[in-house]
Amino acid sequence: MNLKFVAVLLFLVVVLGLKYPQPSITHGRTDVVSVTPWLAPVVWEGTFYPVLLDSIYQKRNITVAATVFAVGKYIRFLKDFLETAEQHFFVGFRVKVYVFTDQPNEVPKVKMAAGRELVVRSVPNSKRWQEISARRMEIIQTLIEETLKNDVDYIFCLDVDSKFHSRWGTESLGELVAVIHPGYYKDDRSKFPYERRPASRAYVAPGEGDFYYCGGAFGGVLAEVHQLAQTCRKNFEDDAKEGIEAAWQEESHLNRYMWLNKPSKVLSPEYLWQDFKARNSEVRVIRFSGVIKNYNEIRPN
Ligand SMILES: *[C@@H]1O[C@H](CO)[C@@H](O)[C@H](O)[C@H]1NC(C)=O
């Protein structure tokens, strides 16, 4: 099916020329903002042409990596994550999904399409989910340094307790990519759950901050994500040495980082909704969303 997709695309490009509606700079979506004040696109359904974008990136012959952590009871979410990724995540492109788990034997056997690969890596379990969360940045940093450097172009780091429901593809690619959290995007920034204690390296002052971004999905080119992972890890560890843990752990550090280093592309909450939330009217498509779960049942503490 993958090969068919690529063949059809090539046919369109080479034989027919690529056909898509005429772009306009005066007509488009008016119910949402599709560019930030620093001129990064905000990706919403209806602001891009998938076939056009795919043809651009097919020519570049890109490889996209995804990381996902399935530690402890979170392993139960892995099957749906992997199966729906096969249906919706960069279909037709070369993809490497890295699963980090303490139970490699429990990783479901999901059939991957041609050009797509599943790589399983062992990691130790931890007594505290906060620690698992902190170790993620370290593992992402090391993975980029030791494994991905030469054969991957883009990486996305995604939460396992989520599912794909619709296309997540080349429209999401950029140097540094952040996803707007579905819970706060209509709120005043004073209400964002940033870390508010100045003693923490994740601190964001009351009059600061652009958006509240998700810790559960971020990405970009390797160099940018490496810089992010290294910085967040160091800040987390330096905080820990002083007995401080940011309000939302890595998500707090990521938000501080994205305030200081503006993302070059911002993905709308279509890219990480929450199943318990009713869909708002401006969200025409839910592409990826967190499943409903009982924290008491799945977290180790
Ligand atoms: C595309 O990239 C893959 C993997 O990096 C490589 O094996 C292949 O030869 C490349 N194809 C082209 C047409 O450059």
Q: What does the model show?
A:
With 301 residues, the chain is α/β, with parallel strands linked by helices. The chain has a domain at 42-189 and 207-221 and 261-292: Spore Coat Polysaccharide Biosynthesis Protein SpsA, Chain A (Alpha-Beta Complex), CATH 3.90.550. 31% of the residues lie in helices and 18% in strands. The chain is built from seven helices and eleven strands. It has helices at residues 2-16, 50-60, 78-88, 129-148, 222-241, 249-260, 295-298, and strands at 42-43, 63-70, 94-101, 116-122, 154-158, 162-164, 176-180, 213-221, 265-267, 273-274, 288-290. Helix 3 links the parallel strand 2 (63-70) and strand 3 (94-101). 2-acetamido-2-deoxy-beta-D-glucopyranose is lined by residues 61, 63, 151. Residues 1-17 form the signal peptide. This is Globoside alpha-1,3-N-acetylgalactosaminyltransferase 1, like 4.
- The number of distinct helices, counting runs of at least 4 residues, comes to 7
Give the percentage of residues in beta strands.
15-25%
Shape: globular
- Looking at the chains present, what oligomeric state does this protein adopt? single chain
The CATH homologous superfamily of the domain at 42-189 and 207-221 and 261-292 is named Spore Coat Polysaccharide Biosynthesis Protein SpsA, Chain A
The major pleated sheet works out as:
8 strands, mixed
CATH architecture of the domain at 42-189 and 207-221 and 261-292: Alpha-Beta Complex
Helix content: 25-40%
Average pLDDT, to the nearest integer?
A: 92
Total count of strands: 11
Global structural class: alpha/beta
Helix and strand element order: HEHEHEEHEEEEHHEEEH
Q: What's the CATH topology label of the domain at 42-189 and 207-221 and 261-292? A: Spore Coat Polysaccharide Biosynthesis Protein SpsA, Chain A
Question: Which runs of at least 5 residues are low in confidence (pLDDT < 50)?
Answer: none
Bound molecules: 2-acetamido-2-deoxy-beta-D-glucopyranose
- As laid out across the biggest beta sheet, the strand order is 1-9-7-8-5-2-3-4
Radius of gyration: 19 Å
CA distance, first residue to last residue: 43 Å
The CATH class of the domain at 42-189 and 207-221 and 261-292 turns out to be Alpha Beta
Active site: 251
GO molecular function, one term: hexosyltransferase activity
Cofactor: Mn(2+)
Keywords: Glycosyltransferase, Manganese, Membrane, Metal-binding, Signal, Signal-anchor, Transferase, Transmembrane, Transmembrane helix
